[in-house]
């Protein structure tokens, strides 16, 4: 593309789905029809273009979010791949932060599964406009209207049905375009690349006319302009219907619904038309907000090339040994060779190259304007969640909300002598994934890795073998605890010693207090102006901040604690930096010990789907695991149990649930909150 695409013709979208709904297959078809790949890759023969990591091909699930650019009807579409497995919820969240619209894929047989619900609600949280594609209309048991009903019931969505299936299962013959009142038939020989519009067969006309009526009715409920004309029985032109669907979709009042079979190459192009017609461009969403790093005042950055640069790094990937950082440009222009500020880290960075990532090739571009998403080579220290901005107009965008790791295991190289190789590989993986942490346990000398769940760690350990040829032995998983305090305490810590023949003395008074659960830590100074010589106060605050990394009970990180530096005694000639560091550390430790420290453990939120006949066993088992059942309700033919339980009691739960329910139970599990250990 020689010329840059106009911002109103850019779409940043994600495809969100439950595992196996057909997200990869749909994406493959999209890339094929938009002309970017020449062969359709099948997920399970190891050819899929999006799922490029061997790990994903083996498991058949999509884990990382790669960005892929394609073009449809003069629009530039960036597809941000999102994972379907809840252990990777964090990947979904960070994708949701940078996309402007989403397509939810549902299986016409399985319908709205619990995991799709989780992701859909996450998208609601970020106010992302959505469309839906009901896939697998060719499968035995496919039921389009059932899925539409489930979207209302379970997702609280207001469906706007735009294509209807013509037939189902083996007899699925394409779709009816509800707005135009036509039948779209795909040509099989061209793998669905070609299609034609035909008249609706006589025996289906009434059904299509009824669907058009229902669409107008559904639009009238959310759009006054349509309501008036609908009640006045006016003929509403196609363009006006599309405009109303677009208003409803962007205003989060309606969800355009399409159907088809990605595998059978039917129904995909109308979805692409929908992306272009109904989903927002970067100018249709509210301007990004951030804060001025100096004053803390809230600032907005408009989606315009001429405004100062504001961009968010949302993903780091190692690419042939080099760092590739995916960046969403909200405002201004990112230029190849350009220098800009990373205000969070207080450093300058330079973009060596800008790349538009297509599924099977990359295209070097010289600039990326407001609204676009690019891969950047050459950023040294920028990590996921960092802002990049114009040094003259600094802004700090809200960082991505990371989940804290809740589970850890000790690992060691399988082959002695491989330690360096393993360490290097681990540090690369940790750089890509902010929820994967690596540390050395100083007492045992073991390497401890932590992450979001058993599967998360399992996948990363497989990658060690496949990508780095660095196999490891893995210990038993352990829960990552936290510590906090239950009451307030105020204490003076003193340091008074002779070091190398010189007397060193300082005293620091610290007050600690519990904060609300989930509020995080806060360290602040209440020292009067001039209480300490220049440079000492930041030093003391740094010691206090770092001191919270390891708690006083068992060395786990402290959370939800407020620390105030209230007083400091400085004596000329005696009070060195070392003395102040030591005094601050003593003061904090003693104050925390006096403030009733407790150990906290992660509690998970479970949603378990089981046939009625297994309810008794499953609930009994949850109780045995110290879990609390919060809600039970029917969903179609099965029962859904919502519960919470400590993670420490949930290891191996998937195996247990399978054996309790003869393989028929499924569940999702996400971190809920921390609770004091009983
Ligand atoms: N019958 C039928 N099968 C389909 C259709 N689309 C996808 N499939 C099959 O469903 C399975 C899952 O498809 P994927 O595209 O891998 O699904 P996904 O949602 O990407 O799954 P994850 O990558 O695991 O999240 C594969 O075996 C596909 O061949 C369809 O339209 N009809």
Automatic annotation (TrEMBL):
Binding site for GTP: 17-24, 81-85, 135-138
GO cellular component, one term: cytoplasm
Gene3D superfamilies in UniProt: 3.30.230.10, 3.30.70.240, Elongation Factor G (Translational Gtpase), domain 3, P-loop containing nucleotide triphosphate hydrolases, Translation factors
Molecular-function annotations in GO: GTP binding; GTPase activity; translation elongation factor activity
Classification via CDD domains: EF-G (cd01886), EFG_III (cd16262), EFG_like_IV (cd01680), EFG_mtEFG_C (cd03713), EFG_mtEFG_II (cd04088)
Alphabetical list of Pfam families matching this protein: EF-G_D2, EFG_C, EFG_III, EFG_IV, GTP_EFTU
Location in the cell: Cytoplasm
Residue ranges occupied by any Tr-type G domain in the UniProt entry: 8-283
Family that this chain belongs to: Belongs to the TRAFAC class translation factor GTPase superfamily. Classic translation factor GTPase family. EF-G/EF-2 subfamily.
NCBIfam families: EF-G, PRK12740.1-5, small_GTP
Name of the protein: Elongation factor G
Species lineage: Bacteria, Deltaproteobacteria, Dissulfurirhabdaceae, Dissulfurirhabdus
